[in-house]
Write a structure and sequence with these properties.
The complex is a heterodimer of chains A (288) and B (137). Helices cover 62% and strands 13% of the residues of chain A. With 288 residues, chain A is an alpha/beta fold. Chain A has two domains: 56 residues, Orthogonal Bundle (Helix Hairpins); 212 residues, ATP synthase, F1 complex, gamma subunit (Pyruvate Kinase, Chain: A, domain 1, 3-Layer(aba) Sandwich), CATH 3.40.1380. Chain A has a five-stranded mixed beta sheet, sandwiched between helices. Chain A starts with a helix and ends with a helix. Chain B has two domains: 84 residues, Sandwich (ATP Synthase, domain 1), CATH 2.60.15; 41 residues. Chain B is built from two helices and nine strands. Chain B is globular, with a radius of gyration of 16 Å. The chains are: A alpha/beta (288), B alpha+beta (137). At the A-B interface, helix 1, helix 4, strand 6 and helix 6 of A face strand 1, strand 2, strand 4, strand 7 and helix 2 of B.
């Protein structure tokens, strides 16, 4: 049985750990609020952009844009893997990376693009040290998203990759985040046309022409899709970290309780033993 | 009082303006375009430039001038929406940084081709718009 002193030591170190996890939990809670705010502020842009796209798609007959045509079939698949930069968020990053591994198992020829340090490290370790990569926590997320979008679409148009798929976390609720695999390019007409609103609102005039406006809208649409995926990754990461740190704090608390009981038992046992010795000694004196 | 139309100016990170406008002048890829209330339904691509608008804020007419990035303008019978990458007011412009951006983009443009050239041109145009807004050229 460990001594009272050992137990006291362990309890103290556990309390320190608990303090750290509790602080990290509070930080995550504050950051998730900010991340959700950023997501909310991006929504008006998202709504308007998809509305414009719907109107346009309804007005143009056949679409002749490289993003909407199948790419070079013999080229590898383009895969954007998006994780957080940091860990300490439970299985958050490894879940996304596993989704990436599953994708690669089905399609052996993959050209990697990564966003987030954890994704970068994984892809580098798996033998692609020079793949294009960006950090998630860039000073300007929209700038970073634009760079990613430019790079992947340039490669697509140049025939270096046959399509573009994005694997990023989806924030289902505060308690649940799941990796989501989305095909970005070629853009499916249904994805942007939105079905239900098939007819444009009256005769719409375009400057310069519907096709020219569309050729500007589609790259913006992709940039923004990547941008909003980055915002969602941020929010999902902090939600996962909040949960992980909450669990860690609870677990530390449980351990502290258990060890405290053990320590009290050990102390009481020592006291009882000492008492017995004193009583025994006194009796020996009387009888002697 | 001039008639107005609900007007929104939106960037990916923020709604810059949400109110009523009497007139909005934006730089489309085809040149400057002035939009008044009850304009025919219209959708245009915008070049980086200076966007000007007569807006109403708290019952008073006001002039809004912003340096805007690439974007789109949509006029519908009941509303007018401008979507841009970025929109900066006079006070938000860093003149020295804008000049540097422009010079760097011009430098890169010398070796750029095709799509890349057009992107650098957008950077140059946006930097120029910022400088024009603040009275530098």
């Amino acid at each position: 049985m460990p001594s009272v002193k050992d137990l006291r030591e362990r309890i103290r170190s556990l309390k320190n750990t608990q303090q750290i996890t509790k602080a990290m939990k509070q930080v995550a809670a504050a950051k998730i609020r900010r991340a959700e705010q950023a997501q909310k502020e991006a929504r008006p842009y998202a709504d308007t952009l998809s509305e414009m796209l719907r109107d346009l798609m309804a007005s143009v007959g056949s679409v002749d844009h490289p993003f909407m045509k199948p790419g070079n079939a013999s080229a590898p698949h383009g895969l954007i893997l998006m994780t957080a930069d940091k860990g300490l968020a439970g299985a958050f990053n490894s879940n996304i990376i596993r989704a990436g591994e599953l994708y690669v198992r089905a399609t052996p020829q993959v050209a990697w693009y990564t966003v987030g340090v954890k994704a970068r490290n994984f892809v580098r370790r798996s033998g692609h040290p020079d793949h294009p990569t960006w950090v998630l926590n860039a000073p300007s997320k929209i700038e970073a998203a634009r760079e990613v979008a430019h790079r992947v679409t340039d490669d697509f148009v140049a025939g270096k990759i046959s399509n573009i798929t994005l694997i990023s976390p989806k924030l289902i609720s505060m308690l649940s985040q799941k990796p989501e695999t989305r095909a970005l390019v070629p853009i499916a007409r249904d994805a942007v046309a939105g079905g239900e609103q098939a007819c444009p609102k009256g005769a719409v005039e375009f400057a310069p022409s519907p096709e020219a406006v569309l050729s500007r809208l589609l790259p913006k649409y992709l940039e923004f899709t990547i941008f909003s995926a980055m915002l969602e990754t941020d929010a999902a990461f902090f939600a996962a970290q909040l949960l992980a740190m909450n669990n860690a704090t609870d677990n530390a608390g449980k351990l502290i309780d258990e060890l405290t009981i053990q320590m009290n038992n050990a102390r009481q046992a020592a006291i009882t033993k000492e008492l017995l010795e004193i009583v025994g000694g006194a009796e020996a004196l009387v009888n002697g | 009082m001039a008639s107005t139309i609900p007007f929104k100016l939106i960037t990916p990170t923020k709604v810059i303006f949400d109110g009523a406008a009497e007139l909005v002048i934006a730089v489309t890829t085809e040149g400057e375009e002035g939009i008044l209330p009850s304009h025919a339904p219209f959708l245009a691509a915008l070049k980086p430039g200076v966007l000007r608008a007569n807006v109403q804020a708290e019952g008073k007419s006001e002039r809004l001038e912003l340096a805007t990035g690439e974007g789109f303008l949509q006029a519908l019978p009941d509303r007018l929406t401008v979507l841009v990458d970025e929109a900066l007011r006079f006070d938000d412009v860093d003149v020295a940084a804008a000049k540097e951006e422009r010079d760097r983009a011009l430098e890169r443009q010398k070796t750029a081709t095709g799509e890349q050239f057009a992107r650098e041109q957008a950077v140059v145009d946006f930097a120029n718009a910022k400088l024009r807004l603040t009275g530098h050229t």
